[in-house]
């Protein structure tokens, strides 16, 4: 059975090269944030648009990494990670809305002529509680869903379908005005975060750097996990769950842990995404978004840690370019990407590179 | 015989004479007299006055200088009384608003004698608004003899309207009791207005009104429940059409075909194309286009399905998750292709006349024909699929491969061919579902997307490769959806159902009807 690529990589001589590339990319990203602080007249200045775009893609990269942890390592294809991402985003959005509206109600509630905040908005004016919610909302949902799903040993395509139905149900719920999350329009028009203007270059740069830091941290976490015994058990789970059970392991705890961890990572990514992009609405939960995340991972290479990041970057970069240049053909391209990757690149781009390296 | 033949013209003339004299009376009378006549006619309905009243309503009645009546037929003023010569110019009879209202009322009273239920129903509804106290005896008599329940309910309301304002409590009491016997939604409103504070002083009438209200509410509830069950069955039959093909391919190949919803969509677009073709080439046979669309949709989607199986899905066997992603890619491309060809807007697929309208079962329960037909059609497709799977050689092979692919291959079943044919069959059934969907909803590029998750849930709930499972799961999900919808809203209902399915799978991971086997990987 395949070892996780990073495990293999750790044993091989390729490590210094991988580390070198990582350091270069990290330096590039950090300097990007710093360059965005330069005045606009400076030719080296990075525009706010570019910074936001890259920051957005970095958030997606975290989602891809989180999805890879459950799919690439534990073999459970989730088609509902958009839900966790959006939940984290909404939790952060609640804080930002409160911050924007001061002591009054958020604007959309005034439109609905509500007189007081629903109970679940309680305490969201405190940044610390919003951060807790960012972790708790996706974490608890994943815990409950995962507990029941893994208990009855739902796996394979069944699991995928159930997660897809879950995010679909979430989307329907958040589309309702009565749910208390702004309905169709979601949250937007944020002003400030912790008192700093959300559009100022300084805040943008800090948020960007935080995203880079979170990405680096999750990469490190994934790397440690993959190297540990835990990671090996997960891989065994993916390849032969029944044999693992016959060896005396109970897969449920392993699955549940990695599932919840992945959901929380998504939630954190969502929380960083919202202040950078400036809007969160229920369409983030649409099944289409979640399944698109699967193609990032598949394109980059499942079961490797760098692959999903690469996939998220390539696909989203292409999307930004395509939807401007040939908007009608983007879906053809994306569809073809799904087919080509599954037919010809079962191990993704990373697998291709590795094969070339071996030859 | 000869005698009868001689008499025949005389008999046929009799009714003519009768209404001819009515017409003469009417044109001769002044406005007050005309009103009186109309009131009398309304109270004593007779078939023979129908043409005259119809003519009055259409403004086709004229008169000459000696006030002889004329009725305009095909643009010519024809003397209504045959033997009277025209004297002077024929002028049109003009009616004032009050008289016009009386004419409408009198016409409705005559129409109550019609043998056509729809005409009687419309007439009874007209009488609810316009009937006069003098008509009570005639209405009572018609109410007793009325065979159709909808008309009876409408008549009861018309009667009750007249009697509720009667000064005698006895009459009001009767009216209130009568209302209790109907199941009409407006009877409820009437009774509630009787019960409103200070509206009714007589205690016995009030109590009777209360009992009647309870009665009406019970009847309305029966209608509501039946309506919910029907729309549940209707949704279930659509889910079944969507899920049936999916259950076959999933059971056989173990792969989820995310492009299955797009087969529905292509089936609906095939219907659209057939409809346009009929409009251009054979507009006189347009009413029957859905029947032609069925085989067209089946073969188009089956061919596309087989092509997809041959070119893409075949190479992904044993990798179900990858198949899921690849078929999702296919579905994106199909959606975009349809969008480029037909435009992103919905296209218009019209119901033919025989599919529009509905069947009135109870006053508050109308069963639309298109939904009735679709339920029947879904059953027909299920029976056909059952026959195909259980009574043909292809079906035998499909079942063999579903149960044990390797063993079937060893016994000489051409598994590759069977895979392709079964995939074509599953896609074709989805195409048929698309034809059905085009008759009840919008046809747009995203049509399939809204059904795909629900139909997967049907497959998950029903178990794999089992027709009985799919049928009961589809009907159950459809009815549960429609019963929950009015109680807690469509969205919360969906979420609740999802939660219930997850809990249900705890109990029976293999679905409702599990295939028994000892295979473990």
Jot down its keywords:
heterodimer; A: 359 residues; mainly alpha; two-stranded antiparallel ribbon
Q: Strand order of the main beta sheet of chain B, please?
A: 3-2-1-4
The assigned structural class of chain B equals: mainly alpha
Helicity level of chain B: over 70%
Assembly type? heterodimer
The SSE string of chain A, one letter per element, is HHHHHHHEEEHHHHEHHHH
- Give me the Rg of chain B, rounded: 32 Å
Report the sheet with the most strands of chain A, covering strand number, pairing sense and barrel closure. Answer: 2 strands, antiparallel
Task: Draw up the topology in text.
The complex is a heterodimer of chains A (359) and B (521).
Chain A: H1 5-11, H2 15-35, H3 48-73, H4 81-101, H5 107-111, H6 127-151, H7 156-175, E1 187-188, E2 192-193, E3 196-197, H8 201-227, H9 229-239, H10 241-246, H11 251-277, E4 279-280, H12 287-300, H13 306-325, H14 330-344, H15 348-358
Antiparallel strand pairs in A: 1-4, 2-3
Helix pairs in contact in A: 2-8, 3-8, 3-11, 3-12, 3-13, 4-6, 4-11, 6-11, 8-9, 8-11, 12-13, 12-15
Chain B: H1 2-28, H2 31-43, H3 50-58, E1 61-63, E2 69-73, E3 76-79, E4 91-92, H4 97-111, H5 117-130, H6 136-145, H7 149-164, H8 169-181, H9 185-195, H10 203-253, H11 260-281, H12 289-311, H13 320-342, E5 358-362, E6 365-368, H14 369-391, H15 393-403, H16 405-410, H17 415-438, H18 449-462, H19 467-488, H20 490-507
Helix pairs in contact in B: 2-4, 3-4, 4-5, 5-7, 6-7, 7-8, 8-10, 9-10, 10-14, 10-17, 10-18, 10-19, 11-12, 11-13, 11-17, 12-17, 14-15, 15-17, 18-19, 19-20
Structure notes:
- The complex is a heterodimer of chains A (359) and B (521).
- Chain A has 359 residues and is mainly α.
- Helices cover 71% and strands 2% of the residues of chain A.
- In chain A, the strands form two sheets. A two-stranded antiparallel ribbon of chain A has the order 1-4. In chain A, strands 2-3 form a two-stranded antiparallel sheet.
- By secondary structure, chain B is mainly α.
- In chain B, 70% of the residues lie in helices and 4% in strands.
- Chain B has a four-stranded antiparallel sheet.
- In chain B, a hairpin with a 2-residue loop joins β5 (358-362) and β6 (365-368).
- In chain B, α12 (289-311) runs antiparallel to α17.
- Chain A binds chain B through residues 71, 77, 145, 148-149, 151-154, 156-158, 160-162, 164-166, 168-169, 172-173, 175-176, 240, 242, 287, 291, 294-295, 298, 328-329, 331-332, 334-339, 341-343, 346, and chain B through 250, 254-256, 312, 315-316, 319-326, 328-333, 335-337, 340, 453, 456-457, 460, 489, 491-492, 494-495, 498, 501-503, 505-506, 509, 520-521.
